[in-house]
């Protein structure tokens, strides 16, 4: 096949906060050094910069301030300074306000932001600095020469659902780079390829722990929640055995962000995060805030919360890992944007020095690790590396004292170590015994189509769009689904997917069969993470497809 | 042949409308934008005509600074250069104002052929193309499904209602409004995107606007009608439904 | 005075012309309405139009108007406007109007409000309702500028049978100067072509099926109803995903957006992705066994029941 190649000095995969910060830092270093300009390229699968990122979001501006010291005068979209921090413990009908806000959750000096807006703004800075920003292009395969990453192949475009080539077929391009920085986000599909092809990167590391965050943006009657109000909740609708918590952030223009984070290590195979989110919205505290408002946007995204001990070695021959892709997120502070940006910036510095020195091997790039070890990243993450383990038994008292509000829940130390979250899911028989009943959500709650909605409606508000005539981008081992996962777990994919991608319908032979509504996908990666048999692999759909998050 | 393509930047199809406080326009800062769909087909048609007959393709857009995104996209797909008529108020302007603004910038260029989409997915007046033709003193034809250029003339397949078509011919220079689906859109390529950065975008200030209409109020349409439930055995309910569709709704 | 430009092709009046007269009568209030018909040999059509309750029917007869060209029609209407000085000119929003009305308004530098679905107020102070953003928003717009204001009305938005009938309006002939040398377009005879793709957007009536149809072999039942209603057959997404109907029959956010006069939803629950594609339909019928299905929220007529019983009954009822 006649496949084009494009050669650059540094390729950055993923245009989120980590990738954009890396690109901008590289451009700054280049400018300061002078000489022949570096060829820097950023690949982003969203049609538009910032359309696939999703976060709460409360921003710790420390990394931004180092990257763009004059960010305020350049119009960085920091929606509202945090004015008020509150933490509640929820029971089914009531809420108890914590008498004080645990230190890790104090947000003085931080900002409530729309991450979409922030990344869009970063993209403008990046483009103005002369970086090639390729939006609407998905990386599909990591190109390797032995153990060395040499670049990324972008996905073919114009392929029909049956695999045949449509009239506009355009083969993917091989982008070859001296250094590739993988910043493809939580459970990045290319980082996943790297980790599986270079298993040594995970030697001595704990498996990553994930959670899923489901979030909505609402417009409320005037004066309901002041901009900059930050509310965190724990307890209901999650049980002690499920770990996570809720958030409600006040934005300007009578908008509010709210969401629920659920650990992707729950035991109940019939647990349903989306139902839990609906229950969260039905709680009097939340329902009172939403009353009379309208839904504006919906979205979902997984987040890596395993912390320091789960982060793989993040440098290898020809490549670096940054941001959520590597797991740089402080789940105790519920913050990852500043770490994503910070690790992106440090990766840029390491890549710049390695390219300049002409050694982009693992040895040449090892300075990335050294720089991180001397940086705020380690200072922030290392002391809390054992958070999960230490507070596994603690339940409420432990939570209050530690300030670990949304983090640990009833988690048993023994269970955690060495086990990925999906492995904690129990079979229907184990969990329910003979009473397992129908494989429907154990926390089902009726929807009213005013405050609570079904998943399909959510998908609409995510703005998700994919070309319908393309191969299904969720590779499912359907034999496992039918013969094992269905009977044993009752098709949990139909519950953990927040976008109604997975649906069990009577097949042609009358038996239940899996239907994949791939074009609903909001790219949250939960299915790739949580399937008990790991029978689902998320690959990138045609570039440009996916959710269209704005203001989120 | 020197071909101009006028493109508009409009909110995406997935965009959920939000209104300004005075409810006379949308909150532009909340919208995400894309190239107006029929305009994308017009651009593709222009690129194909250039491949066949040679010449240049110049993309023109009127609007605030943000419209440079669609101009860059058009340059990445292969247009040779761009003209941006810049004006903060042009995003919300009516068709006559937009046509005047484009005409002022395009007048001296001596285009042989000007293509636009048949209408925009935002205000949808369906006037900009024809009004621009009038300002540029060109003949026009609308809702075009096929373009043939020969000996200083164009022959066009124009869509009429109900599956009817008609061939229309006129001398160049001429303006055509293009129907969606006339061709197969190409993808922008990485090399195209890189090349686009080196192409010229000529920026022109917008002339003074002479609006011809004003939006008094915008609202989200709400279904005012009540659902009439028809009960009864299937045969009765069916007969009653047919009666009401014939007599009340006159839909049959 | 309100002037309506009736549209004819091949000696037959377009029904949308009567709708434009109905709109003009509403807009006029106390003002007189005149109707003009342009073409070659249009006396009979003028006589037909005289049945409406209008002050005058004007026949503009010229051989240069025998086949449509935008330049000739623009010159004729400009002459007519000069002769009669209307306050508003109303046209049906047809493909022909879309081709010529902006030309006339641009030449005269007068406001043109297109694709109007409703009129608020009367005469010079009237405002006009039209859709924007592909039907996501409804706009009320006021023209700015000198008379005449040009207004085109959406086909189907006003009712032809609402035209007030009179006792025979006087018919007069107006001759206008059309300079053959200024007609730049030449036209060939119109021809019909089998549609390559189904254009549901053009359909008057649509029968759409959803999951309630249960199996591919039952799609034929819906097709029979479509035939009986002279409707196009369409579907919600799951039906097309299953390959029971081709993709080009899909209505909704990932398919086509339609606005027929009648939309019959069979076994469609009414997911928002489907509703955004069909809620602009004038009359919506929902047949679903689930009384709580959201489709009933947008329906004008609803029947809760088994579509396998109701659809055959409907086909039978349509035959009577």
Query: Which segments of chain A are poorly predicted (pLDDT under 50) over 5 or more consecutive residues?
Result: 389-398, 403-416
- Largest interface by residue count? B-C, 76 and 82 residues
Chain-averaged pLDDT of chain A: 91
Structural class of chain A: alpha+beta
| Total of DSSP H or I helical runs spanning 4+ residues of chain C | 9
Query: What is the N-to-C order of secondary-structure elements of chain C (H for helix, E for strand)?
Result: EEEHEHEHEHEEEEEEEEHEHEHEHEH
Evaluate the radius of gyration of chain A. Answer: 22 Å
Give the CA-CA distance, first to last residue of chain C.
45 Å
Strand segment tally of chain C:
18
Helix and strand composition category of chain C = alpha/beta
Oligomer: heterotrimer
Summarize the biggest pleated sheet of chain A: 8 strands, mixed
Give the tally of β-strands of chain A.
Answer: 24
| Percent helix of chain A | 25-40%
Structure description:
The complex is a heterotrimer of chains A (552), B (252) and C (320). Helices cover 27% and strands 24% of the residues of chain A. Chain A is α+β, with helices and mostly antiparallel strands. In chain B, strands 9-8-7-10-6-1-4-5-11 form a nine-stranded mixed beta sheet, sandwiched between helices. In chain B, strands 2-3 form a two-stranded antiparallel sheet. Chain B is globular and about 70 Å long. Chain C is α/β, with parallel strands linked by helices and 320 residues long. Chain C has nine helices and 18 strands. In chain C, the strands form three sheets. A nine-stranded mixed beta sheet of chain C has the order 9-8-7-10-6-1-4-5-11, sandwiched between helices. Chain C has a five-stranded parallel beta sheet with strand order 15-14-16-17-18. In chain C, helix 3 (70-84) packs across helix 4 (95-108) and helix 5 packs parallel to helix 9 (307-319). Chains in contact: A-B, A-C, B-C. The interface between B and C is large, with 76 and 82 residues. Strand 9 of chain B pairs antiparallel with strand 12 (186-187) of chain C, so a sheet runs across the interface.
């Amino acid at each position: 096949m006649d496949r084009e190649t494009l050669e650059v000095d540094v390729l950055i995969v993923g245009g989120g906060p980590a990738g954009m910060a890396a690109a901008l830092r590289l451009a700054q270093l280049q400018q300061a050094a002078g000489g022949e300009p570096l060829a820097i390229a950023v690949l982003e699968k969203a049609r538009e910069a910032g359309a696939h990122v999703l976060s709460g979001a409360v921003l710790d501006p420390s990394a931004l301030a180092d990257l763009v010291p004059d960010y305020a005068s350049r119009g960085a979209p920091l929606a509202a300074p945090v004015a008020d921090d509150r933490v509640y413990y929820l029971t089914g009908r009531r809420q108890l306000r914590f008498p004080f806000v645990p230190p890790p959750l104090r947000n003085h000096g931080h900002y409530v932001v729309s991450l979409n807006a922030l990344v869009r703004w970063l993209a403008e800075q990046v483009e103005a600095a002369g970086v090639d920003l390729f939006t609407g292009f998905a990386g599909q395969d990591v190109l390797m020469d032995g153990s060395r990453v040499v670049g990324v192949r972008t996905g073919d475009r114009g392929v029909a659902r049956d695999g045949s080539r449509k009239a506009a077929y355009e083969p993917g391009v091989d982008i070859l780079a001296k250094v590739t920085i993988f910043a493809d986000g939580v459970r990045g599909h290319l980082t996943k390829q790297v980790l599986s092809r270079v298993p040594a990167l995970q030697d001595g590391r704990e498996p990553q722990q994930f959670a899923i965050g489901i979030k909505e943006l609402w417009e409320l009657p005037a004066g309901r929640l002041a901009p900059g109000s930050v509310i965190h909740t724990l307890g209901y609708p999650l049980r002690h055995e499920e770990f996570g918590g809720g958030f409600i952030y006040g934005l300007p223009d009578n908008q509010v962000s709210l969401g629920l984070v659920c650990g992707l290590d729950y035991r109940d195979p019939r647990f349903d995060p989306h139902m839990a989110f609906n229950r969260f919205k039905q709680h009097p505290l939340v329902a009172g805030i939403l009353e009379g408002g309208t839904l504006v946007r919906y979205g979902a995204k997984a987040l890596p919360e395993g912390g320091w001990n789960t982060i793989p070695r993040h440098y290898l021959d020809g490549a670096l890992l940054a941001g959520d892709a590597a797991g740089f997120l402080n789940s105790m502070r519920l913050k990852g944007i500043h770490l994503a940006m910070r690790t992106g910036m440090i990766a840029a510095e390491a890549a710049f020095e390695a390219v300049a020195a002409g050694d982009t091997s693992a040895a040449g790039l090892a300075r990335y690790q050294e720089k991180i070890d001397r940086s705020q990243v380690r200072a922030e993450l290392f002391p809390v590396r054992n958070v999960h383990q230490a507070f596994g038994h603690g339940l409420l008292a432990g939570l209050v004292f530690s300030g670990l509000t949304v983090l640990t829940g009833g988690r048993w130390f023994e269970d955690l170590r060495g086990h990925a979250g999906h492995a904690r899911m129990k079979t229907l028989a184990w969990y329910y015994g003979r009473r397992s009943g129908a494989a429907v959500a154990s926390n089902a709650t009726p929807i009213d189509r005013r405050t609570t909605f079904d998943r399909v409606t959510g998908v609409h508000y995510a703005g998700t769009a994919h070309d319908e005539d393309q191969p299904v981008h969720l590779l499912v081992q359907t034999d496992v689904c039918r013969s094992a996962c269905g009977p044993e777990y009752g098709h949990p994919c139909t519950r953990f997917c927040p976008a109604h991608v997975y649906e069990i319908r009577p097949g042609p032979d009358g038996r239940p069969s899996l239907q994949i509504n791939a074009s609903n996908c909001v790219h949250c990666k939960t299915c790739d993470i949580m399937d008990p048999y790991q029978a689902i692999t998320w690959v990138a759909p045609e570039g440009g497809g996916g959710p269209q998050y704005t203001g989120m | 042949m020197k071909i101009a393509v006028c493109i508009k930047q409009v909110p995406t199809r997935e965009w959920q409308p939000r209104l300004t406080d005075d409810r006379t326009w949308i909150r532009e800062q909340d919208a995400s934008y894309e190239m107006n769909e029929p305009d994308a087909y017009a651009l593709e048609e222009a690129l194909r005509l250039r491949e066949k007959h040679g010449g240049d393709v110049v993309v023109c857009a009127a609007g605030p600074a943000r419209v440079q995104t669609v101009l860059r996209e058009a340059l990445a797909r292969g247009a040779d250069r761009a003209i941006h008529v810049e004006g903060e108020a042009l995003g919300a302007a009516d068709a006559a104002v937009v046509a005047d603004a484009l005409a002022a910038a395009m007048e001296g260029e001596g285009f042989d052929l000007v293509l636009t989409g048949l209408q925009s997915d935002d205000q949808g007046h369906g006037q900009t193309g024809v009004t621009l033709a009038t300002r540029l003193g060109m003949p026009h034809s609308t809702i075009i499904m096929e373009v043939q250029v020969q000996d200083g003339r164009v022959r066009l397949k124009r869509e009429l209602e109900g599956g009817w078509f008609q061939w229309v011919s006129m001398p160049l220079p001429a303006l055509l409004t293009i129907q969606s689906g006339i061709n197969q859109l190409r993808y922008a390529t990485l090399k195209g995107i890189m090349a686009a950065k080196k192409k010229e975008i000529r920026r022109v200030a917008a002339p003074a606007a002479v609006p011809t209409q004003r939006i008094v109020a915008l609202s989200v349409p709400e279904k005012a009608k009540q659902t009439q439930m028809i009960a009864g055995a299937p045969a009765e309910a069916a007969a009653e439904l047919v009666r009401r569709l014939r007599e009340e709704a006159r839909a049959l | 005075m309100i002037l309506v430009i009736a549209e004819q092709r091949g000696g037959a009046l377009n029904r949308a012309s009567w709708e434009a007269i109905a709109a003009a009568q509403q807009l006029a209030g106390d003002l007189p309405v005149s109707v003009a018909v342009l073409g070659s040999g249009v006396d009979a059509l003028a006589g037909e139009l005289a049945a409406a309750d209008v002050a005058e029917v004007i026949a503009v007869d010229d051989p240069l108007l025998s086949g449509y060209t935008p330049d000739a029609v623009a010159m004729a209407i400009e002459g007519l406007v000069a002769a009669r000085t209307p306050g508003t000119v109303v046209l049906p929003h047809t493909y022909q109007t879309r081709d010529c009305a902006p030309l006339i308004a641009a030449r005269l530098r007068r406001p043109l409000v297109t694709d109007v679905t409703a009129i608020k107020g009367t005469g010079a102070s009237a405002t006009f309702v039209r859709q924007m953003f592909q039907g996501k928003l409804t706009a009320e717009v006021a023209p700015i500028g000198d008379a005449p204001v040009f207004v085109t009305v959406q086909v189907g938005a006003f009712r032809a049978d609402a035209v007030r009938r009179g006792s025979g309006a006087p018919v007069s002939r107006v001759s206008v100067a059309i300079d053959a040398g200024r007609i730049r377009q030449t036209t060939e005879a119109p021809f019909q072509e089998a549609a390559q793709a189904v254009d549901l957007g053009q359909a008057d009536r649509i029968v759409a099926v959803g999951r309630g149809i249960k199996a591919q072999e039952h799609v034929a039942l819906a097709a029979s109803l479509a035939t009986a209603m002279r409707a196009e057959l369409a579907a919600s997404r799951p039906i097309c995903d299953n390959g029971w109907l081709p993709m080009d029959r899909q209505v909704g956010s990932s398919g086509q957006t339609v606005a027929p006069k009648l939309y019959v939803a069979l076994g469609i629950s009414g997911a928002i992705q489907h509703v955004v594609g069909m809620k602009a339909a004038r009359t919506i019928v929902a047949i679903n066994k689930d009384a709580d299905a959201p489709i009933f929220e947008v329906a004008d007529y609803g029947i809760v029941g088994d579509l396998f019983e109701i659809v055959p009954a409907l086909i039978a009822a349509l035959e009577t």
